[in-house]
Design goal:
single chain, 24 helices, alpha+beta, six-stranded antiparallel beta sheet
Length: 809
């Protein structure tokens, strides 16, 4: 009994302690819940407080006369001013209303100043930008602006800064979450954004390092099959009949030794260049565009369509606008941070872009000595050195030694195990690359004005399609592409025979006006006709989108804007259908394929080639295509297979699958049929296909998912500030080229019979604020394959007016 009482006494003594601990836990839980609720309330209030004023009157210092800003039903600003200076100041102000944080991050990322805000994880990114000298080149470009453009860039910056000054206490919530305020905007910041676009579209020096490594492992005989330049499917816009040639190239044997970059470094570099978000296999920045003469349209007037394919983000890469001052009137899309309109139309002409993939960069292996010198034709020269300091939030500064030769910046510091001194030459660094001709493009009234403006377009390299109110359609290739008399090598250059000899003359770049067939189209595939005297690139894109556009338009008359939207959202793939037939044949002739593969073959052989969300055959083919490259390459190059990427890798795969070269068949397989059947089997396993393949849907494995870079990190905000995971149709071979965070970034069509019915829509919306009505109002149109008109005339704009803001001096 005494022992029992002692135990009871001891338990009573412990109970207060337990009650105290339990009470503390409850208090902590309540405090945590209160903190979450309080943080949620604070952030939503910050979003609400930062919503811009869209109606009434605001003071904008620097204006000479009042400016009217009408927002239409999608929040797109239609800005009308009495002078161009006032117009571009207002454009800067209005863009900052919707996208200031995006603009600030764009200039920081381009300049290599992200770690100062986001910490040590961005040091490697900043190091790359500093080594490449992106800010230094933006500063150089700023000095080359004409007096007129310099003034307009300063007008734009003044408008941005007026918004910053007026909203110090209610900047967008991203600034408050990260606890900083933006620095004043300057013209050089706009040029930083320009340089960022050039990096996205023309940067391929890392591909040359990867190609060097893969070629060294395979040898040039096999490697040539992986790196085709053009194809028999190509249809250059200046060449009427289809081209049936299949050009080949000889790459010299490159010894693999310890001085070359490791696979780990190259994969890290690729991830750094592509960004942290996943991009679908085979997705490369590109676009579709076409123009059809009035002879083939229902209205009798030219029709032009353009959808530019880029990585998606929140906010969108594009910002829609309508700018008017006197006779200057232009509408379309621009990049926040850059004045003017980049693609769209004015009252007389319309234009669109696709990436040309011109080879604008080379890597040179510099011959050096022990005296920090490198050798040129006239002797030894000292390597130039500069000092860069990366400020790191919550960390120590990182000091860089940035070196240069006559070719350009030494990139070796980006590859710690690289022993060679590699210098990068880029036409963007060339002194001839000067100014930005966007204003002259916007103001052009006819084909001659337009071409004169484009002759000063140094980069990125682009295909430009044109249509005007006088009934003309045209095409022009643009960009300062290096002239290489000895040809493009495609790997780092270690000889003296591949130096640049100036630039390919503008007058000799491919161009055409009013072709006899009345159709022009480009989609990143080869644009040089047979016998063309200059080598512009080794890496055209896969031909399938371009081929489909030409075939779809061929022989059709009475075409309407609705037809153009049908083509922009087309998901038929001729090559996928062809591969499906080949895979089915392989399974039929393989040894012991099994019931599941036989069902796969039956589904594929009867497929119509439409890569739809509910298609089982599309899912099977997609899984097989994903499995193909590692299964083919790993037996020959091991883990180096991960280094293989090429804009025309899809065509390389098609040629290998359809021609079944003996030298490429992995040793463990007796026939290509056995190999291809196993590719399908492996693809099904990797993608966790169901037992009954008929119940498998392509949209289950192929999705689109857009997230805000900051708000997606917060559980209470992740879902409603993004799109969520949605099934997606189309692939890299369809006109609607689409991946998880990649695809058409806008869709534009104009029929010159009715300019007010020209359609233009982006992916999400004009605003970067999740509480704005214009944050994601365009998403249902984009995702659903629909569109809407961007009004242009005063009457049409008035009919769609939702808000009117008057900016006064």
């Amino acid at each position: 009994m005494t022992l029992g009482r002692s135990v009871q006494v001891e338990e009573r003594r412990k109970r207060p302690v337990l009650r105290i601990l339990l009470g503390l836990v409850v208090v902590l839980v309540v405090a945590l819940a209160g903190g979450v609720l309080g943080g949620t309330w604070w952030l939503k209030r910050a979003m609400r407080d930062s919503l811009p004023q869209l109606d009434g009157q605001l003071s904008l210092p620097g204006l000479t006369q009042p400016v009217t800003v009408i927002r239409d039903q999608h929040g797109i600003p239609h800005i009308e001013a009495s002078s161009l200076d006032d117009l571009f100041e207002a454009q800067g102000y209005v863009t900052a209303q919707d996208r200031l944080w995006q603009m600030d991050m764009a200039r920081r990322m381009a300049a290599g100043e992200a770690a100062e805000l986001l910490g040590s994880k961005l040091v490697e990114h900043d190091r790359m930008q500093r080594v490449l000298g992106i800010r230094a080149n933006a500063e150089r470009l700023t000095t080359t602006l004409s007096e007129r453009d310099r003034r307009y860039y300063e007008d734009y910056a003044r408008g941005v800064n007026a918004f910053i000054d007026q909203h110090q206490i209610n900047l967008s919530p991203e600034f408050r979450l990260l606890r900083y305020k933006p620095k004043p905007w300057q013209p050089v910041d706009s040029l930083l954004v320009v340089m960022s676009m050039n990096q996205i579209l023309d940067e391929d020096w890392n591909t040359k390092l990867e190609r060097e490594q893969v070629t060294a492992r395979l040898g040039p005989t096999l490697a040539v099959a992986l790196y085709p330049t053009g194809s028999w499917r190509d249809h250059p816009p200046t060449q009427a009949p289809p081209d049936l040639t299949a050009p080949q190239q000889n790459i010299p044997d490159i010894p693999l030794d310890e001085t070359q970059t490791s696979i780990e470094e190259l994969l890290r570099l690729r991830e750094l260049l592509q960004g942290s978000r996943a991009v679908c296999e085979g997705c490369t920045p590109g676009s579709n565009e076409w123009a059809v003469s009035g002879a083939h349209t229902a209205s009798g007037k030219p029709v032009l369509s353009n959808d530019m394919h880029l990585e998606h983000g929140i906010p969108n890469i594009w910002y829609e606008g309508d700018l008017k001052a006197g006779d200057f009137h232009v509408a379309g899309v621009t990049v926040p941070g850059i004045p003017y309109i980049i693609a769209g139309h004015n009252g007389h002409i319309a234009w669109g872009f696709t990436a040309l993939y011109g080879d604008m960069q080379d890597l040179y292996v510099e011959q050096t000595n022990g005296l920090d010198e490198y050798k040129e034709a006239d002797g030894w020269h000292p390597i130039e050195h500069g000092r860069e300091t990366i400020h790191v939030r919550f960390g120590e500064d990182v000091v860089l030694d940035v070196a240069r030769t006559a070719h350009g910046p030494v990139i070796t510091p980006l590859l710690p195990h690289e022993k060679r001194v590699l210098a990068m030459r880029w036409s963007a660094y060339d002194p001839k690359s000067a100014g930005i001709p966007l204003f002259d493009v916007d103001a052009a009234a006819n084909w001659q004005d337009f071409r004169t403006a484009l002759s000063k377009w140094w980069g990125p390299s682009q295909n430009v399609v044109y249509a005007d109110d006088q009934g003309h359609i045209g095409y022009q290739a643009v960009g300062y592409i290096p002239y290489r008399p000895a040809g493009i090598l495609g790997v780092p250059i270690a000889d003296a025979n591949h130096e640049w000899q100036g630039l390919v003359p503008f007058e000799q770049l491919p161009s055409t006006l009013d072709p006899a067939n009345g159709v022009i189209a480009t989609a990143n595939a080869r644009i040089t006709p047979d016998g063309y005297p200059f080598e512009l690139t080794l890496g055209w894109a896969d031909p399938y989108r371009n081929e489909r556009i030409w075939k779809w338009l061929a022989g059709k008359d009475k075409l309407t804007p609705a037809d153009m939207l049908t083509l922009q959202t087309d998901v038929y793939s001729e090559v996928d259908q062809e591969l499906a037939q080949r895979f089915a044949y392989a399974i039929d002739h393989a040894k012991d394929p099994g019931a599941k593969l036989k069902q796969a073959a039956d589904l594929m052989r009867s497929w119509n080639g439409a890569v739809g969300m509910n298609s089982a055959p599309a899912a099977i083919v997609a899984a097989a295509k994903t499995a193909f490259w590692p299964m083919l390459l790993k037996p020959k190059v091991g883990d180096d297979w991960k280094l293989y990427q090429w804009p025309e890798s899809g065509f390389a795969r098609e040629e290998l699958v359809m021609h079944a070269p003996v030298g490429w068949l992995p040793e463990r397989y007796a026939t290509w049929d056995d190999f291809l059947a196993d590719v399908v089997r492996q693809g099904l396993e990797t993608e966790h296909a169901p037992m009954d393949l008929a119940k498998w849907h392509y949209g289950q494995m192929h999705t689109v998912h857009l997230e805000h870079p900051l708000f997606s990190l917060l559980p209470w905000f992740k879902d409603w500030t993004g799109t969520g995971v949605q099934p997606q149709s189309g692939d890299t071979s369809t006109v609607k080229q689409a991946g998880r965070t990649f695809g058409p970034s806008q869709r534009f069509t104009i029929d010159w019979s009715n300019v007010d019915q020209a359609t233009e829509n982006i992916v999400m919306g004009e605003s970067g604020d999740p509480l704005s009505a214009y944050y994601r109002d365009q998403w249902p149109y984009w995702y659903g394959g629909q569109t809407f008109a961007l009004p242009f005339s005063g009457e049409a704009v008035a009919a769609q007016t939702s808000h009117t803001l008057r900016l006064v001096p």
